[in-house]
Task: inverse folding
């Protein structure tokens, strides 16, 4: 088997940097956004148009107000447009990540459940999911640090559920998938589990993952 290196992960990171730089350019129409996205991401114009929209800043607008209007976060608006501060000016064209309004990328209203895999420990789970051992133990009413394969654990973190197309393993603990906008996303999985996703390459799967650390909680 060919050894998997970090090269692919670095390439994804570089592509994301290039994407942020591209979105810092002023865009005047939604059609332009669609064409630029389709060229850069190698997706269809109609798909790219569905994944972003353009809004022209008016007097009195703020990022906070726009985030409420479009049901996104201030952080998402800043990230998509490459903004380093909350400052916006009248006449500025702002890309709005409309994909976040889709039911294919929904924020979970219930606390997610994780099924323990071989090799998991409470310490490793806490680190991967962005919480603490004590919080996991308290939530699940555990008296010790032991977990067993197949055990169901409630993980008290914010999570999302989204459909992706599988690419495969990046290394032994991360996988690459592509979202509905054609953007590559790297997600964390239990160590050694990533290679199993090679068999799912090209297939669409629904993944529940942590919003903060981008770690897989469950796959459908």
Result:
């Amino acid at each position: 088997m060919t050894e998997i290196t970090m090269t692919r992960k670095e390439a994804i990171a570089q592509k994301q940097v290039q994407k942020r730089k591209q979105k810092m350019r002023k865009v005047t129409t939604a059609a332009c956004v669609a064409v630029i996205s389709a060229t850069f991401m190698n997706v269809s114009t109609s798909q790219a148009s569905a994944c972003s929209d353009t809004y022209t800043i008016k007097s009195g607008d703020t990022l906070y107000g726009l985030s409420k209007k479009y049901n996104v976060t201030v952080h998402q608006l800043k990230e998509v447009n490459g903004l380093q501060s909350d400052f916006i000016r009248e006449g500025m064209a702002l890309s709005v990540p409309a994909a976040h309004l889709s039911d294919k990328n929904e924020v979970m209203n219930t606390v997610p459940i994780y099924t323990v895999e071989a090799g998991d420990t409470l310490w490793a789970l806490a680190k991967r999911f962005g919480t603490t051992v004590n919080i996991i133990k308290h939530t699940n009413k555990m008296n010790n640090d032991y977990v067993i394969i197949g055990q169901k654990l409630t993980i008290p973190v914010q999570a999302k559920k989204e459909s992706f197309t599988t690419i495969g393993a990046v290394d032994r603990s991360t996988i690459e998938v592509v979202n509905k906008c054609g953007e590559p996303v790297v997600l964390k999985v239990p160590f050694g589990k990533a290679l199993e996703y090679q068999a799912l390459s090209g297939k669409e799967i629904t993944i529940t993952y942590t919003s903060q650390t981008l770690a897989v909680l469950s796959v459908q």
